[in-house]
Amino acid sequence: MTVYIDPPTWPGHGRMWSHLVSDVSFEELHAFAATIGCPPRAFERDHYDVPEAHYADAVRAGAREVGSKEIVRLLTEAGLRRPKGRPAPR
């Protein structure tokens, strides 16, 4: 199982956030997120939003650190990218 996380550089709700993704499947992503305590509501279209305070927990659990551009590339190449405004693939 390989999941990826970018640095917590995304502001929102008074905190900084990271994106947690899989390049294999959403099932893999959901399973990993559950093991680090991410609530289902943290899932947004194709990634989990992870607060900066939990970034190190995700890395310790095995998430591979990559840049934000790499996150988008991995999702796109895996066919898992779901940009805002586009319906989920069927």
SSE run: EEEHEEHEH
The end-to-end span amounts to: 24 Å
Strand composition percent:
25-35%
Summarize the biggest pleated sheet. 6 strands, mixed
- The outline comes out as globular
Q: Structural class of the helix and strand makeup?
A: alpha+beta
Low-confidence stretches: none
Care to count the β-strands?
Answer: 6
Helix percent band? 25-40%
The radius of gyration computed from the alpha-carbon positions, rounded to a whole number of angstroms, is: 12 Å
The pLDDT mean sits at 91
Helix tally? 3
InterPro entries: DUF4031
Pfam family, one: DUF4031
Protein name: DUF4031 domain-containing protein
Domain DUF4031: 3-77
Q: Quick gist of this model?
A:
With 90 residues, the chain is α+β, with helices and mostly antiparallel strands. The mean pLDDT is 91. Helix content is 30%, strand content 26%.
Task: Identify the notable features of this structure and list them briefly.
90 residues, alpha+beta, single chain, 6 strands
